[in-house]
Amino acid sequence: MWFSIIVISVLLVYIGLIANFILGWNRIKPFKASGTSNAEALLSCIIPFRNEEHHLKQLITNLNRQQNANYEVVLVDDNSTDGSYALVEQLISSLDHFKLLKNNLGEGKKLALKQGVTVANGEYIVFSDADCMHPPSWLSTIGSFLNSKNTDLLIGPVKYHSPSNFFEWFQAVDFLSLITSGAGAAGLNRAIMCNGANLIVKKALWLQAQDSLNESYASGDDIFLLQYCKDQGKQIEFLKSSAAIVQTFCEKTLKGFLRQRVRWASKSKAYTDKFTICVAWIVFISNMVMLTIPLWFFYNISMASVVAVFAMFKILIDYILLKKGAAFVQDRINFFSYISIAIIYPFYIVASVLMAVKGPRIWKGRKI
Length: 368
Hints:
It is a single chain. By secondary structure, the protein is an alpha/beta fold. It has two domains: 2-24 and 273-361, no CATH class; 30-252, Alpha-Beta Complex (Spore Coat Polysaccharide Biosynthesis Protein SpsA, Chain A). Helices cover 53% and strands 12% of the residues. The protein is built from twelve helices and eleven strands. A seven-stranded mixed beta sheet has the order 3-2-1-4-7-5-8, sandwiched between helices. Helix 10 packs across helix 11. The relative contact order is 0.15.
């Protein structure tokens, strides 16, 4: 009896958490840029790259096509072993607002970012990744938002580009859940996550945060910065504008996908924000509970029916939040199709956490 009460309580807490994220999402007003941003503060776009030869031409073309924006681009080669550096050098040879650097501070994304920020001239730093697609309105929308609000850290929207099969669709829905719940938390003034593919911060604030960025972790430049800003009481907002959505790509293999998610989960050991830690535990434990539901029908059929009802409420409220995120990024999600993901999801969450504890983790050909 007591165990069933605990199980139902866990699901109720999770449902309440997601309901609050929906409330937070609804509180964020959609933003539409107006006019030109040429008179606004200079934006310094910093993008590190390592062995991204196949993405660089599209990246530079998209960045060079930014409309009505006052910006510079700093590209930092993080010890590439392919022809990436030479290709960038060739592609930007006639582009005065582009700079190319080598990461002379060592190895890793965080040091590459530091190398880029060192030479940046802008009041605001705009971080992104080399394997992303940027709409022509991206920087002008950011500039317009920053011109209208005194924001310290701005979380930009990110989505996966054109999933073409169930495996990629699963990734896209999983990623959408992270982006939408993170935005919802920001709408409650309790931000818990962001993504380095689209993240904007005041340069002076980023420099102040250096001791808090956990350089012992190769990744996490985004979440540790967020936690520092939150701890310092800085203004953190989510940019709810479809004109500023950055697109990135799904992992092509299961191995690559699991490595990516394990890398993300492994950083949780260094989280300092209590609310973020609490959310992580609620998500993990609630998914553990979901895995036990079939066993209830062997243990107590009448109680199993009650637990199953609460589990369906969990799935439903997840879907409601995802539906709002999907509408924003101009994607579609069908409830009956989502059920298949909801069945797999608890196995994936629990496996990712256990793999993160075990390690090792690989990123960009390096052990981290």
